[in-house]
Specification:
single chain, 206 residues, mainly beta, 13 strands, globular
Length: 206
């Protein structure tokens, strides 16, 4: 199953098709499955598409809002990717960075495989990003500065768990945001740290 999931993620990263919008999905027979959730705690909106063999409509996730969907399988691709951009219509524009939160529901073993990756650069650099399962026995994915760490990001868990990807975890301020004396009345901390009580420093080079 791991090799199939890795092949699915690789195919998503290389896809350059001009797809037709289509919301048809193969729903699981059991209602006892979790959800993929994307929560935006940043000030700026996120733009999201649910992608299998076709692409769902653009979803706009504003500050303190969430998008969610039940785990399901696409009848053709099997796995699903939630593609997220900082730019409207970003996945249809050349060389615009995308963060891909991918999952594959294995109904036979009641397992959910999940992964996070970037293509065309790291569009959310300077923001903290975390995939946290509701099942505490399962592994999180943590991108502390909006960039993927070294090594494989593929995890798995029992399929009743929810998986929540949060941007600007804890409402932290992205790099270059005003902070300290430059942001009177705003007590939020930086995703990195506040320099000179003026602005959040740039994310470190990893």
């Amino acid at each position: 199953m791991l090799l199939h999931f890795l092949a699915f993620v690789s195919a998503l990263q290389c896809a350059t098709a001009n797809p037709t919008l289509n919301n048809h999905v193969e729903r699981p027979r059991s209602a006892e499955v979790g959800r993929a959730i994307v929560t935006n705690q940043c000030d700026a909106p996120l733009y999201l598409w649910s992608v299998g063999s076709s692409i769902g409509a653009q979803q706009v996730v504003n500050k303190d809002q969430s998008y969610s969907e039940l785990f399901h399988r696409d009848p053709v691709s099997g796995g699903i990717a939630l593609k997220i951009s900082a730019v409207p219509d970003g996945i249809f524009q050349p060389n615009v960075s995308q963060t891909i939160f991918a999952y594959n529901y294995d109904e036979g073993t009641n397992t959910i495989w999940y992964d996070m990756s970037d293509v065309f650069g790291d569009g959310f650099v300077g923001r903290t990003m975390t995939v946290k399962p509701s099942d505490p026995n399962c592994q999180s994915i943590d991108w502390y500065y909006g960039r993927p760490p070294a090594g494989s990001q593929v995890k798995n868990c029992q399929a009743k768990t929810d998986l929540e990807l949060t941007f600007c975890t804890g409402h932290c301020l992205p790099s270059w945001s005003p902070c300290g004396n430059a942001a009177p009345g705003d007590n939020r901390v930086c995703c990195t740290h506040c320099i000179g009580s003026h602005h959040c420093v740039a994310a470190p080079t990893l």
